[in-house]
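Help needed: design a sequence for this.
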């Protein structure tokens, strides 16, 4: 193993160790998403509520429903005598529960046989809205404090104030013949109905529009748990069929790597394995690449050629020819760079050249006078050539 490859391996190992150290030392961010998941301890999960159900209903069994209500309760329905083989309370707490039309009808049938349905949600199926004769309205997104109260004087002390995660949704229409108002919510100076009981056959629907009241965040604040206990006190002490957020279909998922991605440690191990494989392929391809022949770059002979020509002129002592070429090249430079006419080298030309070049007018005047003088002179000597060359070079560099 070459020294360079050893350095790469060492740097890669340090990178892995650094990523692992950062991952384990960084606290996970708080998830404020409203999941209403009974297995999550996030602020808007329902872990505490789910765990306390057995304490609130000590004589009841809590049964998770991980399929749709229709799939679950239809198996308990007997067509011979049109009855259910089980009794109890169906319960769901979710902003937008997944209750389709078939499931809504199944809940109506289940309640008509003397069972209870408890739904705390911001959205109810149309089948329930039509059958139970109620409607909801959400006027605006509310920011501030709301007070939840009960109509029953016995629960007067169970009122609470809620400040976070609220929606200004309320029951805007109810069937007064079959509906009993059980609770209200007060936003600023407006009071609305947020908890009702609807008679259906031999059973009841208990409908609530603020599911945030049953989340971990609010149950742990002050004594807010008394409100949740007050709401649940209307339910019978019988089997509770808790509609789980963790449906069987969701647990199965669709990705073959679903379990790896669900665990942070395994997820990072998978990413590191992919990075390592990619780096191995890069370095391995580099090592196996064919040797590239080294070709010498083409030499620039321009400088050497220029020196040769210069020496040739210098040896011949043809100073007049050199001075003429020097002046010609310099005037061509003036025309190309400054766009000036060089046929007449008078004071106007000197002034224009000084303005465009930004150089000292006195120095330009001396240079132009020298050029005019040498153009008219014959039999120039070496001193004239050197003096002209120095003056032109000063113009280029100054």
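Sure. Designed sequence:
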């Amino acid at each position: 193993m070459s020294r360079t490859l050893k350095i790469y391996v060492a740097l890669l190992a340090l990178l892995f160790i650094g990523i692992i150290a950062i991952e384990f030392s960084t606290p996970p961010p708080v998830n404020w998403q409203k999941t209403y998941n009974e297995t999550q301890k996030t602020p808007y999960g329902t872990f505490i509520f789910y765990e306390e159900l057995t304490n609130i209903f000590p004589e009841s069994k809590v049964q998770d429903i991980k399929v749709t209500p229709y799939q679950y309760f239809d198996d308990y329905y007997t067509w011979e005598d049109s009855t259910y083989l089980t009794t109890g309370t169906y319960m769901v707490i979710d902003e937008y529960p997944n209750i389709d039309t078939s499931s809504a009808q199944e809940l109506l049938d289940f309640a008509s046989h003397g069972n209870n349905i408890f739904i705390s949600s911001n959205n109810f199926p149309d089948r329930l809205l039509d059958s139970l004769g109620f409607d909801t309205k959400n006027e605006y997104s509310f920011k501030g404090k709301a007070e939840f109260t009960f109509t029953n004087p016995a629960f007067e002390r169970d009122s609470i104030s809620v400040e976070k995660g609220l929606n200004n949704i309320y029951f805007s229409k109810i069937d007064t013949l079959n509906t009993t108002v059980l609770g209200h919510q007060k936003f600023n100076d407006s009071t609305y109905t947020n908890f009702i009981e609807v008679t259906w056959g031999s059973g009841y629907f208990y409908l609530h529009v603020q599911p945030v009241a049953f989340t971990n965040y609010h149950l742990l604040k002050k004594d807010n748990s008394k409100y949740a206990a007050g709401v649940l006190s209307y339910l019978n002490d019988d089997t509770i069929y808790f509609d789980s957020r963790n449906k069987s279909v969701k647990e199965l998922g669709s990705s073959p790597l679903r379990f790896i991605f669900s665990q942070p440690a395994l997820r990072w191990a998978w990413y590191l394995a992919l990075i390592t494989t990619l780096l191995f392929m890069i370095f391995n391809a580099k090592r196996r690449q064919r040797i590239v022949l080294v070709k010498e770059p083409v030499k620039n002979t321009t400088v050497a050629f220029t020196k040769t020509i210069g020496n040739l002129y210098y040896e011949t002592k043809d100073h007049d020819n050199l001075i003429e070429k020097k002046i010609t090249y310099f005037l061509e430079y003036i025309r190309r760079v400054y766009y000036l006419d060089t046929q007449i080298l008078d004071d106007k030309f000197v002034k224009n050249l000084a303005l465009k070049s930004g150089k000292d007018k006195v120095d330009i005047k001396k240079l132009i006078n020298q050029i005019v003088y040498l153009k008219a002179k014959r039999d120039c000597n070496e001193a004239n050539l050197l003096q002209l060359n120095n003056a032109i070079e000063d113009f280029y560099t100054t």
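Residues 264-287 form the longest helix (24 residues).
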